[in-house]
Amino acid sequence: MLCPNCNQPMNLVIADDQKILHCSNCGGSFFEENGINKITLNTAQTLAEDKKSDEISSNEKKCPKDQTLLKPILPNCNQSHQISSHISDDITLLHCQKCRGIFAYPDDLISLKKTQVAKIEYYKHWQLPLNLLKKTIILGVGALIFTAVIVNYTYFQKALNQANASDLIKKLYLSRSANYLFLFFKTEKPFRSKVIFQDATDKKIIKKILSPQPKTIHQLTTTEINLENDIYYQIVLTQENGLEIKTEVKRLIMNN
């Protein structure tokens, strides 16, 4: 079975009574349904340390078991995955809708397990109802983020004005299914975002809004792009002050 990220062979690892497919090249791990919730933080750290590179490809990600396209699990969404309540904006997990397995990059796996451990310990200590626990943790994380933003605001703004949008985009994910195009990425700072497609075959330009309001998660699903044509795209991020930061124009290369 091949890794969804780097397409290298995955090894079967048995840890905490869970069968885990692990890639020793990029450090990615694929868990059976609910298996990611059953491993310990120590196991997650061991898996994350077993890697040769930090490679994150922009190719479509497929389930190593059944080749179904993997889709991101969004924070606190209405998906059936219990894991979504533990995901923050800086954690990317991909799930298979067929076998319900979950693929995690090494750094995201560590972040997820630390979040779960923190919630469990807090709940045990204060014996709070789970819904109150969620609110408390969210407020605490929000306060830390706010403090960090205030302290680093001047430095960040200087760097931002000199940056290319590609430097601000994390884990760009592009995939296709039939005539559907799916685009997903994250940014550390909230931006409004759009993508400009240039159809070199039909000689036309298509502009699509991803995030009309400042967000850190940006996604698009569309059938307006003829994926059989020669397509180029450019992502545009807009700051609160209206300043636009653009990526380079890149050719859209998809796997069938």
Summarize, please.
Helices cover 26% and strands 32% of the residues.
Could you characterize the architecture of this molecule?
The structure is a single chain. By secondary structure, the protein is α+β, with helices and mostly antiparallel strands. It has three domains: 11-116, no CATH class; 128-162; 165-251, Immunoglobulins (Immunoglobulin-like), CATH 2.60.40.10. The chain has four helices and twelve strands, in the order βββαβββαααββββββ. It has helices at residues 41-49, 106-126, 130-162, 165-168; strands at residues 11-15, 18-22, 29-31, 71-72, 93-95, 102-104, 169-177, 180-199, 204-222, 231-238, 244-246, 250-251. β7 (169-177) and β8 (180-199) form a beta hairpin. The radius of gyration is 19 Å and the shape is globular.
